[in-house]
Amino acid sequence: MPTGRGRAQSFAQRLDISSFINKAVIVEEVDHFIPEHEFADFLIEEKLKKNIATKGYVAPTSIQDRTIPHILKGQDVVGIANTGTGKTAAFLIPLINKMMKNPNESVLVVVPTRELASQINDELKGFAPGTGLFSVVCVGGTPMGPQLRDLRYKNHFIIGTPGRLKDLIERRALDLSQTRSVVLDEADRMLDMGFLPDMKLIMSKMPSERHTLFFSATMSKEIEKLVNEFLREPVKISVKTRDTAKNVDQDIVRMKAGEDKLLALENLLKKSDFNKVLIFGRTKHGVERLAKTLSVRGFKADSIHGDKSQGQRQRALDNFKQDKLQILVATDVAARGLDIPLVSHVINYDLPATYDDYIHRIGRTGRAGAVGKALTFV
């Protein structure tokens, strides 16, 4: 088994370094998606329509345009979509409408990470003012007490990670026997993280007659097996265009033997256009050490990884979003689902373990039509 530099080289050989080089393609206006609907056209409650308009939403994205009508009809849906395509609103809008019409019901949203749960809850609050709907976030790495307390009240949306949801079910604090709507978001990521047994347990506690929505960036054999097990005659909708974002300029930083990698990184970060940089490392310890080293050397940097509390991670993330930090150093826990506006560069300081991880890392830049840049140290 190769170690250290040898292991890194074997990663690079296995991943094919040329796949990290790809010039951004500026898509002509004619190639832009033209939706069949506007949000005002959907058969949803007027209050919800007003909230959507207040948020400035007029035309749906492709995943929203194609999935919302099916979800409103109560059909099971499998959505295959790249990260950053607006799939959260694609399921929240019709499910908020459903809860407004049926306030005695509830929805379970299962996601792989604490950050994604928190982000979905924030988006839900943006769509739900004045609707009388309540939500609870049930995630690990945070005290269970407040979650146990909140679960004693009526919640229309229960948003959580598989491990914590399983714990709450086993404590009899969470009863899903009457929860007839469920969203499995980023199902491929939950599979990668080993959550399959927890997901199966959670689903077994729900009624067999239920409304199931399933979102994934990939459609592997394992995902197909899950779809067949959990969904009933689903409508399959794919808006995945290609593996890597067209508007992410990708290149490599080739290091020669004996060269100082940290110095090379510093020289990049001093350039004026590196104004909001997400750096990925492979280990929690390495990420923490790199963030501290960069801070000592005068950069505004912080880190997020699994050893930090939820509060610490959220604080670092908020500071990065609000431009109080120039640099956020992260493990792959931050690579999926997080919507951070205007990230100028993603730097793979350590190589990703798989090409799929690479796709999700670089998907943090070049969002909402902007051109982003991704650099990989090899």
Q: What is the secondary structure topology, with strand pairs?
A:
Layout: H1 4-15, H2 46-54, H3 62-72, E1 77-80, H4 87-101, E2 107-110, H5 114-127, E3 135-138, H6 144-150, E4 157-160, H7 162-170, E5 181-184, H8 187-192, H9 196-204, E6 211-216, H10 221-230, E7 235-238, E8 248-253, H11 261-269, E9 277-280, H12 284-296, E10 301-304, H13 310-321, E11 327-330, E12 345-348, H14 355-362, E13 372-377
Parallel strand pairs: 1-6, 1-7, 2-4, 2-5, 3-4, 5-6, 8-13, 9-11, 9-12, 10-11, 12-13
Helix pairs in contact: 3-4, 4-5, 7-9
Give a short account of the largest sheet.
Answer: 7 strands, parallel
Strand residues, percent: 15-25%
Q: Averaging pLDDT over every residue, what do you get? A: 87
Q: Specify the number of helices.
A: 14
The spatial strand order of the largest sheet comes to 3-4-2-5-6-1-7
Basic shape = globular
Radius of gyration: 21 Å
- Helix percentage: 25-40%
Please give the CATH architecture of the largest domain. 3-Layer(aba) Sandwich
Oligomer: single chain
Task: Give me the count of strands.
Answer: 13
Report low-confidence residues grouped into runs of 5 or more.
Answer: 1-13, 25-32
For the terminal residues, how far apart are their CA atoms? Answer: 19 Å
Short description:
By secondary structure, the protein is α/β, with parallel strands linked by helices. Helices cover 38% and strands 15% of the residues.
